[in-house]
Amino acid sequence: MTTEERGQEEQERRQKKRIKRILLPLLALWLAVQLGKCIYQEEERRLGYAYEEEQYMNRKYRKFGDRFHFKSESKDSIRSPYEVELTSDHYPYGSLFHGAVILRDSWIEEDAFQHKDNYMGFVFWKERVALYEPFFDEAFGVGNYTVTGGVLPLPDWQLYGPDTEIEEYLDTDEGLSITLDVRSDFTKSKEAMEILRKRMAERNWGLDLYISYFDQAGNKIAFDWLDINIYSSERVKLDWAFENSEMKERWKHVSSGT
After folding, report:
1. Res 23 pLDDT > 70
2. Residues 122, 164: Cα–Cα separation, whole Å
3. Full-prediction pTM beyond 0.85?
4. What tens digit of pLDDT does each residue of 165-179 get?
5. Alpha-carbon gap, residue 151 to 179, rounded angstroms
6. Which of 66, 136, 212, 235 has minimal CB crowding within 10 Å?
7. Cα separation of 142 and 29, whole Å?
């Protein structure tokens, strides 16, 4: 290779390096712009959708003076793809109890979107608990239990709204879903459940009860999840799950069954 050819080759190599130094930053910039556009478009879509959800709830429940805030779309594939979670000024996330969140669902019926939500469950929660407390007092004794949580599911078929009264809610809702920690006599748990069953049957109310019994030292004995007068008014069958083998051995004389 002649000196002239080597010089030309070196010149071409340098030219390619200069082109790379120019093109690579431009390519990186182009990719960054495209990524930014995608993120912006998705955020614009999400915020627009969130705004619509918030405004719908703001209009529906304006009489309560509450303001709603989009939390997230449902990530649970079992639930509706149109279900969303919200919070509000009156009911921030988890304000009633851990995990309590406002739910709104939509579905298409007769070529139009229909909507339902569980907001009235939040509005009536404390009042409903207060109405059930006399039965808990009778079953467990005043001061022997603590409300530690609950569930506020979407209504099944009921379309509750701002004009729904507590009486209508109690008459049509499937029942109060609540979690209780109890420190009364575990050997009388069967009698306590029978008291609750009778009181629910008298009023045709339901009670979805997650109950845990504790001894006087605060140690958990056992727990059970009971549907009382929701699907049947028959006597409640107890099936205690003991906290550990020690508790099972200590309390095995407390029989399971009806």
Report:
1. no
2. 13
3. no
4. 999 998 888 889 999
5. 8
6. 235
7. 69
